[in-house]
Amino acid sequence: MAAANERTAVVFPGQGTQRPGMGLAWRDHPAWQVVEEAEALIGEPLGHLLTDADETVLRRTREAQLAVLLTSLVAWRALGEHLDPPVAFAGHSLGQVTALIAAGVLDLRSGVEFAARRARATQSAADAHPGRMAALLGADLEQAEAACSAVEGCWIANDNAPGQVVIAGTPEGVEAATEAARGSGVRRTSALNVGGAFHTPLMDDAVADLEDHLAGIPMADAVIPIVANDDAAPATDADLWRRRSATHVARRVRWRETQVVLTDLGASRFVEVGAGSMLAALAKRTVPGVTVVNVAGPADLAAVPT
């Protein structure tokens, strides 16, 4: 059981947390069966993405996203059997797909197939509409919105935490917006090593593709609410998730607000399930009173009260 008066929110990371060997520690754990189940369901080898894939392979969108998704699902299989039901789930960008599987909206086959389709569709949109992303470090949301509104072809893609906002758009739009941000006092900007302007209208082609895909797969109401990236509201309705799982790729990730909503729902502890500790770092900046625990490998399980 969890500590008295302590309630948990489970959060799943997205693309950008991948690294070689990210799932290797799970290879001999019973929860590795998730990978074997996914391989059997979709008929292709996947385990090597978690154990043997090098940085070159993991720079490819599809491979990176499947590796992150499966690492989180293995960790969740190991943890979820022993953890009291969380107050809510949430996932950052791709991590929202993991949350949909964990909450029962998508079954494993549909979830893995959707993640692969999502990666392909967004990469295709990025190839057709080249774009860039950049972090505005130390900027508040108002500064970022002012910088984007002053130019053509740039939008806020991620409102991650106080002092960390990501903008995205056409190469020219991002360059002009970063110049405007520096002119307004933003202390530092950093170009992100990504292949497109994700979570902006430049992904609209992907939305149409994903709507077609999602129309043909089964989805169920969530057993536990998921706080959505696009409006930071908790939701369980399957039809709502069918719509927003497609439009999500072209809309802002409101992660700062999502974290606040998780605490409003009663969570005093976040458990980050999957590789890395990006979400823990964001939580410490946004909701510093919340306890944050990472479960990246089997050794981390003991740190989570159950």
Q: Describe it for me?
A:
This protein has 306 residues and is α/β, with parallel strands linked by helices. The protein has 2 domains: 8-127 and 200-303, Malonyl-Coenzyme A Acyl Carrier Protein, domain 2, CATH 3.40.366.10; 132-191, Malonyl-CoA ACP transacylase, ACP-binding (Alpha-Beta Plaits, 2-Layer Sandwich), CATH 3.30.70.250. The chain has helices spanning 33-42, 47-51, 55-58, 61-80, 95-102, 108-128, 141-149, 171-183, 204-214, 238-247, 255-264, 278-286, and strands spanning 8-12, 88-91, 132-137, 154-161, 164-169, 188-191, 226-227, 234-235, 269-273, 291-295. The chain has a 4-stranded parallel beta sheet with strand order 2-1-9-10, with helices on both faces. Helix 1 crosses helix 6 (108-128). The chain is globular. The mean pLDDT is 95.
